């Protein structure tokens, strides 16, 4: 089942169950996807983002909520931090399993070999290989320095 269909089914289920918080988060996900669809149309695309793009959107949403939760906790607003963490839980239901440190290391090593990378100048090709295969499964911000270390 395509990602959009899974999200629509979850939205309908949340409406039936009257799960207000879950419904709110699912609507936020749909709104972000529709915004990207509109932006894609403006750039001459067909207006429909791929499942890979949807995974990237949701990964970004998780990161934003993690930062917000951290800020709320530091500010002593625990109820708001809990709300952000609950939204992360809903979003992560649709994301593939995150790779652990050993799997990330193996993926980076394999991507370097696949791209034929020999120096730091090849980092873009390595990251492109990783993004093509592991979108939504790893934090590319954290992977970048690992790729640099291995190529540097």
UniProtKB/TrEMBL annotation:
Pfam families associated with the record: YqeY
Protein name per UniProt: GatB/YqeY domain-containing protein
PANTHER family: ALTERED INHERITANCE OF MITOCHONDRIA PROTEIN 41, MITOCHONDRIAL
Superkingdom of origin: Bacteria
Classification via InterPro entries: Asn/Gln_tRNA_amidoTrase-B-like, GatB_Yqey_C_2, YqeY/Aim41, YqeY/Aim41_N
GO MF, one example: carbon-nitrogen ligase activity, with glutamine as amido-N-donor
């Amino acid at each position: 089942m395509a990602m959009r269909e899974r999200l629509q089914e979850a939205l309908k289920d949340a409406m039936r169950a009257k799960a207000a918080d879950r419904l709110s988060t699912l609507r936020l996900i749909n709104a972000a996807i529709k915004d990207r669809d509109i932006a894609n149309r403006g750039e001459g695309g067909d207006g429909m983002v791929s499942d890979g793009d949807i995974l990237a959107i949701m990964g970004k949403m998780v990161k934003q909520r993690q930062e917000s939760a951290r800020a709320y906790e530091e500010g002593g607003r625990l109820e708001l931090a809990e709300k952000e963490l609950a939204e992360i839980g809903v979003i992560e239901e649709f994301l593939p399993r995150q790779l652990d440190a050993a799997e990330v290391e193996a993926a980076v090593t394999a991507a370097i070999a696949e791209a034929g990378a020999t120096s730091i100048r090849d980092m873009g090709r390595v990251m492109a290989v990783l993004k093509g295969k592991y979108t939504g499964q790893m934090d590319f911000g954290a992977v970048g320095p690992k790729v640099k270390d291995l190529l540097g």
